[in-house]
Structure prediction request, 868 residues.
Amino acid sequence: MAKATNQQEPTGLRADARRNRDLIVVAARELFLEQGIDVPLDEVARRAGVGIGTLYRRFPDREALLRAVGEENLHHLADLAQTAQREEPDAWHALCRFLRGCVKLRMGELSAKLDPHLHQRLRAGHDLHEIRQQVIDALLGMTEQAQADGALRGDVGPGDIAMLMTLHIYLPANMAGGPAVARVTEIMLNGLRAGVGSPLPGEALTGDDLRRYTAME
Amino acid sequence: MAKATNQQEPTGLRADARRNRDLIVVAARELFLEQGIDVPLDEVARRAGVGIGTLYRRFPDREALLRAVGEENLHHLADLAQTAQREEPDAWHALCRFLRGCVKLRMGELSAKLDPHLHQRLRAGHDLHEIRQQVIDALLGMTEQAQADGALRGDVGPGDIAMLMTLHIYLPANMAGGPAVARVTEIMLNGLRAGVGSPLPGEALTGDDLRRYTAME
Amino acid sequence: MAKATNQQEPTGLRADARRNRDLIVVAARELFLEQGIDVPLDEVARRAGVGIGTLYRRFPDREALLRAVGEENLHHLADLAQTAQREEPDAWHALCRFLRGCVKLRMGELSAKLDPHLHQRLRAGHDLHEIRQQVIDALLGMTEQAQADGALRGDVGPGDIAMLMTLHIYLPANMAGGPAVARVTEIMLNGLRAGVGSPLPGEALTGDDLRRYTAME
Amino acid sequence: MAKATNQQEPTGLRADARRNRDLIVVAARELFLEQGIDVPLDEVARRAGVGIGTLYRRFPDREALLRAVGEENLHHLADLAQTAQREEPDAWHALCRFLRGCVKLRMGELSAKLDPHLHQRLRAGHDLHEIRQQVIDALLGMTEQAQADGALRGDVGPGDIAMLMTLHIYLPANMAGGPAVARVTEIMLNGLRAGVGSPLPGEALTGDDLRRYTAME
DNA sequence: TATGAATGAGTTTTCATTCAT
DNA sequence: GATGAATGAAAACTCATTCAT
Prediction:
């Protein structure tokens, strides 16, 4: 799976150059989370074990680096969705596993730090379309199947699931690890069960709505 | 209400100095949201219409400014809780109004931008204890009353409500305004209804747990 | 005269700030000539005796500094033309003095170092229009009067004089000081005398043509 | 002629290496003129279509590249002088053709960009002696013959012609193409005619003086 | 008290140069 | 020989902070 992921990233680099590129992205991800997205790029280079010039050769500015990290994050999200779908016995449990797993990705921690304009620019970048579509497809499959199984309430669409996913993704770091989150997730899942509570306002959110709201990015 | 809020802030300034202070906080809040918490303080001063020297006289460093903005945010949160409690006919509807209202405060947008260490330091600052206690008290009251009314499931505590509140607070800006949020909130509220779904894992979260997780900060 | 020159430069600065600005321009002019237009701006600041930040506050980039130096150069050129016109007994001698004096300004040494695009941008800047017009006016007066006196050949216009001026301005530094230049200038002046040699090709160049060719810039 | 020129450059390279060397010099000449002599060598290599390593193999530093370009320039100058001398019917017309042709070489555009120290170093380099001597010889021949013919005033020497040549060479790019230059050249030629105007100050400049002043370099 | 000019440390960024492939 | 990846020194540039006016 990891291999498949990597194959979608820029290729055609000499083996050593490729390895350096990956080291840089890993270091950047770590430091962005630890110290904020304004860490000196010097420090990123140092942690990656390369010269600052090498970093700049691959990533002409901070934004390019953020984009690369975001792309990797999205790969993880797609992995999570596809694995859940594949490994769980039924669609409802796949949905549960997916939502619970989103928290651990800590994706929002990064997105939330971006200023709105940059955030928008990153989202608009076309590098992410394909991979984002994979997430969408998986969510769509799980939602429809769970409804056919009578496990998921009928008046929600895949877009609604994506919204809940986003909420999990953006959970602040200090809560993300704790046991309290598990309870909150269960409250949501209870609210999603078929035959529960009052009808929701408006229309079920479709995959297209979802496309507008999916996180990071 | 606004007046009451202001009285809790530093006082004893000459009227014009006081006005300058407020202009600065407002400008800072706007710019932190627009451009990130790293906006040049020069720019904050310019937007506030004061000299950079004046800004420094009131706020010895960026952290002091962040603290002031956070404090104001927390005042808004307390306002929201107390007003809901006072104006709604019953506790369940007060809870609903409170959760729905959290989104509009856009509080998390700022907190989420802080690096973990700074975030921790701000939370620990003692300026916020009193006002945070007000939020806690209101939540506690609403929760217990709603359970007594048989409207809220019995296995949740005020801490659980606070978690849901936090989720709403941290909702990313691009989603915060949309109609999709309303649906997500309703899903959660459905999950909170008495007699719904499966029991939650672990113990109901108390006000003390809540204290650890409340946002902004 | 120097005073008049200064009054045309940006004003409204505190006295000390104004003095610093001037020190920077002087230092820049010296170093651009000594070391090329790529001298580290650090060095300019050091020679001016100010911090690098001060330099950047007044001149947001190297181009702004070049523009300021160029403006000063042009002031010197106008001074030269006007002084010659005022102090010489007749227009022909004023022209001679003007042409001979151009060499000493060393103006071209700077312009010639600019890459074409930058050069064009500087020329286009509107800061220089007024002062350039002064040069044009003086040249026009001298030319017409010298022709009325029967000293200057009739088939040249002020634009032709400006061309010769430009040639002198762009004389390379290693020749500019030497005695050889004097001889070359005299050859030109001989060629300008009334009744000499063959007619020139094309039309006499007017002040408008001149406007297109005047140097530095 | 072009072939003869090339034969004087370093030889003994494999055919492909030789071709690469020439591509680099051509690219360098273009970019030096377009962007200034500080253009990144990376860019020179790219325009030449070779790797940066290849460039460095041939030219150990920027100065070597400048020297090569200058050398080529000087070859063109010698070509111009020798061709004029050979093809024109008499020495006066050869001189005229030579002076008029200098403008098109755009040689000064490069020299003028050098800082004084580098300029001096390049001039001093011994690579250029032989080729510069060719220019000198041609000028000397034309001057003496034109004076013998009674066409050129007697009180100028070949050094004076060289000075006028230099003036033409250093003409700024924005003027070099225009029709105005032709008029200026004619003014000079008129000033050079036998029997014209007043005597020149000082002594006629010899070939030795000329050696000191000839451009590029 | 308010102002904004000055400062320089800290970052970003570029590019000449080396060297493994 | 050719290539282009890596390097890091040097230059550009920003901005928090101080302090004279």
In short: Chain C touches chain D through 52 residues (CB under 8 Å). The CA atoms of residues 108 and 170 of chain C lie 4 Å apart. Residues 13-14, 16-17, 20, 50-54, 57 of chain C lie near DNA strand E (CB under 10 Å from a C1'). Residues 62-87 of chain C form the longest helix (26 residues).
